[in-house]
Design goal:
This protein has about 160 residues and is α/β, with parallel strands linked by helices. It has six helices and five strands. The chain is about 45% helix and about 15% strand. Strands 2-1-3-4-5 form a five-stranded parallel β-sheet, with helices on both faces. The chain is globular. The relative contact order is 0.17. It binds 5-O-phosphono-beta-D-ribofuranose. The site of 5-O-phosphono-beta-D-ribofuranose has 10 residues, from strand 3. It catalyses: 5-carboxyamino-1-(5-phospho-D-ribosyl)imidazole + H(+) = 5-amino-1-(5-phospho-D-ribosyl)imidazole-4-carboxylate.
Length: about 160
């Protein structure tokens, strides 16, 4: 996207991309300007610090942050900016993302992170949530969101099930 990004999608590693791409796909589908970057809380703490510090001045309105394991990226970003942070727990190898979920959702009071479901659904919903946030101040985007919901409703309403034997 060449437009000034409104949503930053960040993740702790390129191994998170197959999950986090689902957030980016939703932003793309709604034409929301965004950027996607690898920013690690523990491997590149200086980069993370700079990203959070510069986010507001660069015009970001929301940050979707995905991480797995001891997933402190969303919480650390939220600690350093007042831009809303949407946390996506990425499935981890041994604990299947339960660790990521608890790390992100259990923020002590004072610094919120909006936490989504583990994995692909969470990433997609974080993208949709960012769209919904921006749509509160953008009538055209709100209309596209309403159309998306209507299409989804119709698709589900038309679902049929195979007969039982
Ligand atoms: C976290 O560690 C990342 O968010 C990723 O989910 C996890 C594993 O990273 P890699 O070892 O695959 O780079 O920082």
């Amino acid at each position: 996207m060449t437009q000034q990004p409104l949503v930053g999608v960040v993740m702790g590693s390129d191994s998170d991309w197959p999950v986090m791409a689902h957030a980016v796909e939703r932003l793309d589908a709604f034409g929301v300007a965004h950027e996607a970057r690898v920013v690690s809380a523990h491997r590149t703490p200086d980069l993370m610090y700079r990203y959070a510090e510069e986010a507001a001045a660069r015009g970001l309105r929301a940050i979707i942050a995905g991480a797995g394991g001891a997933a402190h990226l969303p919480g650390m970003l939220a600690a350093m900016t007042t831009i809303p942070v949407l946390g996506v727990p990425v499935p981890s190898r041994y604990l299947k993302g339960q660790d990521s979920l608890l790390s992100i959702v259990q923020m002590p009071k004072g610094v919120p992170v909006a936490t989504f479901a583990i994995g692909e659904a969470g990433a997609a919903n974080a993208g949709l949530f960012a769209v919904a946030m921006l749509a509160t101040g953008d009538a055209a985007l709100a209309e596209r969101l309403a159309e998306f919901r209507a299409a989804q409703r119709e698709r589900v309403a038309a679902m049929t099930l195979p007969p039982t034997s």
